[in-house]
Amino acid sequence: MTRPDDRRFMALALALGRRGHGQVWPNPAVGCVIVARGRIVGRGWTQPGGRPHAETIALTQAGAAARGATAYVTLEPCAHHGKTPPCAEALVAAGVARVVVACPDPDPRVSGRGVAMLRAAGIAVDEGLCRDEAETDQRGFLLRVTAGRPLVTLKLALSLDGRIATRTGESQWITGAEARRAGHALRARHDAVLVGAGTVRADDPTLTVRDLGVARQPVRVVAARGLDLPCPSRLTESVTEAPLWLVHGPSAPAAQRARFAAAGATLIEVPEGAHGLDPTAMLAALGARGLTRVYCEGGGGLAAALLWAGLVDDLVTFGAGVALGAEGRPGLGPLGLDRLAEAPRFDLVTARRVGADLMALWRRRA
């Protein structure tokens, strides 16, 4: 039964859980708040690398005050022994009297078992409070468990007329410094940054998060069918700072594979489609390696392939007040649309001004 302050405490647990976005894969980013007699005695969130878990942190902070308390957890507590003991077991041992769970965990090792373990120990369990918000926060983890792929956020920094560069390829900078900083914050909230080979050849990027003090850099993923990339590059020279994964096709030359492997990159082979790497197979391969949230920064061909395959879950656009004309390079490659009804559709979630630019979040229409 829901109590008057339950929603407030669960909202705090959700906010804590979001701190783990981009830092905890392959584990979910969970938040936990422990309340005794109306006072918060412990709070925690999943730590970088995926452990300790949120419940462990909160219980340690609460100490003896956890006995008889209520624990608010954003995802069903785990019930299996892995690199850490089950969180459901820890809640039982701590003597909490009640656990409020926002959403169930579909992982077969947990699904329903965490709640069952708590109830078998005589703990009252209430389920479903703020479930929609929790499932939104957990979309990446839930997609990886149920569909075998990570959540994909596509970012486009565009001129007023939908261009990402001039006809000569100049793109630095269409948007302002504030928008670029917001882009780095988005990188930090994802497990990986994904770009196409053309972006690497044109920009020689590092794809790291800068000036935000993150504990764990995102994996840099490059989709390059033939591994036709420069080596050395800023990517290969920074593999000790952030992992570099190169997704390629069966046709990639052995010499290029050996060169990048020697440079410290992880090579991932996936099937090729008619127009490049199979995007569904690519995301399945990334999901199999534990990624839950992927942030795609283009280029246009990769963005179009993901959109056409229905694999873009969120679309973030940064719109700048500059016009580049029809000869400028478009933000998307060809989609091959004949009818408007075939176009991918997104619903606006939020829009706000960032410096001189407009940042909008769009979510794929169900």
Give structural notes:
- It contains eleven helices and 18 strands.
- With 366 residues, the protein is an alpha/beta fold.
- It has a nine-stranded mixed sheet with strand order 11-10-9-8-14-6-15-18-17.
- A hairpin with a 2-residue loop joins strand 12 and strand 13.
- The model has no long low-confidence stretch (mean pLDDT 95).
Per-chain topology:
Layout: H1 6-18, E1 31-36, E2 39-45, H2 54-62, E3 70-75, H3 87-94, E4 98-103, H4 113-120, E5 124-127, H5 131-137, H6 139-147, E6 151-158, E7 163-165, H7 177-188, E8 192-196, H8 197-203, E9 219-223, E10 244-248, H9 254-262, E11 266-269, E12 272-273, E13 276-277, H10 279-288, E14 293-296, H11 300-308, E15 314-319, E16 329-330, E17 346-354, E18 357-364
Parallel strand pairs: 3-4, 4-5, 6-14, 6-15, 8-9, 8-14, 9-10, 10-11
Antiparallel strand pairs: 1-2, 1-3, 7-16, 12-13, 15-18, 17-18
Key structural traits:
single chain, 366 residues, alpha/beta, five-stranded mixed β-sheet
Record field, number of beta strands: 18
Question: Helicity level, as a percent range?
Answer: 25-40%
Compressed to H and E, one letter per element, the order equals: HEEHEHEHEHHEEHEHEEHEEEHEHEEEE
Look at the structure and give the mean pLDDT: 95
